[in-house]
């Protein structure tokens, strides 16, 4: 189940507020003492997070399907850059090494199936009670809080104070709707975020000579991949090296965009197959449909490029 962008809900007793944890979304299947993690794209990502395997023993005796996020906690709060390192581990061996130096935590925020009983049709409030009854509270797994008696603005203020992406609002009576972007779940972002697909890059100049200078990016529209502008800030040297390695084998002769790329942007551009997804933060959209002041935030290997579309504005 996905959320729509929106505003803070009224404090009328019909909503629960959660933090937007800004990690890697994952379904967790627990059965017969074994754990399986599945990403939003349906990929089995279990080998990448060996430190979570013991959650199956913690819930021994139960058959459970959980929804939640994988995060790296620093001082009790998520560190997006660190979870990026875990997401991009090159092998199970690398993941096992990182599990020691950079361990993750699974934050379970919903339960969808329990001991042979499907729970999708139950209201959120009832599913939440069943989740809390499971007492998922360990060194590498937690049930994060859900607030029903705290003003929504106060919850958002806490998320701002700790640098989180925002908060989630969920209607207490809502059922779980797999695959739908439902208005019963609402995401309220502290800063505008957008996933985009890389369609090309500009060679750098000066201090970035011989490296990527900026990325040409797009989002899918009804007619195809529409050009959404270029991203030239937010990169560390490690990020530039990583992106160069990913994009080098993807070169193509023509731009992948179905809408015009301004000549100044297309000049000297090196085009690539549109299969790499990144996340940016930005100030807004221009009238031409381009990102205003975008900055690179991270690689999103968990997102399907074909499903990257323009995020609706708050209130949409």
Explain what the structure shows:
The chain has 316 residues and is α+β, with helices and mostly antiparallel strands. The protein has 7 helices and 20 strands. It has helices at residues 55-58, 80-87, 92-101, 124-133, 152-161, 237-247, 263-266, and strands at 2-5, 15-20, 24-31, 34-39, 64-71, 73-74, 77-78, 105-114, 117-118, 141-142, 166-171, 181-189, 193-203, 212-221, 224-231, 270-271, 277-281, 284-285, 291-292, 295-299. The strands form 5 sheets. Strands 3, 4, 5, 8, 9 and 10 form a 6-stranded mixed β-sheet that branches. Strands 13, 14, 15, 16, 17 and 20 form a 6-stranded antiparallel β-sheet that branches. The longest helix has 11 residues, at 237-247. It starts with a strand and ends in a 17-residue tail after the last strand.
CATH level-4 homologous superfamily of the largest domain: DNA ligase/mRNA capping enzyme
Q: What's the mean pLDDT score?
A: 93
> Helices and strands: which structural class?
alpha+beta
Q: What is CATH's topology name of the largest domain?
A: D-amino Acid Aminotransferase, Chain A, domain 1
What is the highest CATH level, the class of the largest domain?
Answer: Alpha Beta
- The radius of gyration is 20 Å
Number of domains: 2
**Helical region count?**
7
Tell me, briefly, the overall form: globular
Element-level helix/strand string? EEEEHEEEHHEEHEHEEEEEHHEEEEE
- What is the number of beta strands? 20
Question: Major β-sheet, in short?
Answer: 6 strands, mixed
Distance between the termini: 18 Å
Percent helix range: 10-25%
- CATH architecture verdict of the largest domain: 2-Layer Sandwich
């Amino acid at each position: 189940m996905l959320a729509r962008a929106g505003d803070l809900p009224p404090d009328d007793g019909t909503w629960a507020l959660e933090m937007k944890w800004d990690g890697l979304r994952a379904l967790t299947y627990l059965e017969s003492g074994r754990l399986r993690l599945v990403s939003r794209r349906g990929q089995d990502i279990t080998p990448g997070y060996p430190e979570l395997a013991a959650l199956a023993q913690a819930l021994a005796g139960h058959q459970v399907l959980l929804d939640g996020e994988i995060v790296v906690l620093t001082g009790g709060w998520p560190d997006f850059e660190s979870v990026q390192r875990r997401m991009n581990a090159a092998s199970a061996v690398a993941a096992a090494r990182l599990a020691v130096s950079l361990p993750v935590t699974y934050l379970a925020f919903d339960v969808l199936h329990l001991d042979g009983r499907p729970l999708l049709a139950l209201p959120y409030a009832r599913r939440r009670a069943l989740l809390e009854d499971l007492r998922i509270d360990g060194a590498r797994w937690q049930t994060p809080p859900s607030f029903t008696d705290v003003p929504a603005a106060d919850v958002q203020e806490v998320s701002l104070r700790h640098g989180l992406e925002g908060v989630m609002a969920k209607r207490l009576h809502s059922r779980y709707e797999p695959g739908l972007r439902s208005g019963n779940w609402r995401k309220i972002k502290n800063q505008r975020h957008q996933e985009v697909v890389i369609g090309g890059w500009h060679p750098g100049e000066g201090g970035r000579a011989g490296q990527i200078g900026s990325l040409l990016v797009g989002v899918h529209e009804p007619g195809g991949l529409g050009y959404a502008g270029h991203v030239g800030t937010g990169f560390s040297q490690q990020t530039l090296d990583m992106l160069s390695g990913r994009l080098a084998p993807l070169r193509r002769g023509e731009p992948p965009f179905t809408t015009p790329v301004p000549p100044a942007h297309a000049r000297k551009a090196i085009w690539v197959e549109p299969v790499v997804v990144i996340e940016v933060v930005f100030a807004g959209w221009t009238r031409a449909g381009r990102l205003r002041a975008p900055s690179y935030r991270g690689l999103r290997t968990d997102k399907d490029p074909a499903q990257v579309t323009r995020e609706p504005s708050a209130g949409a």
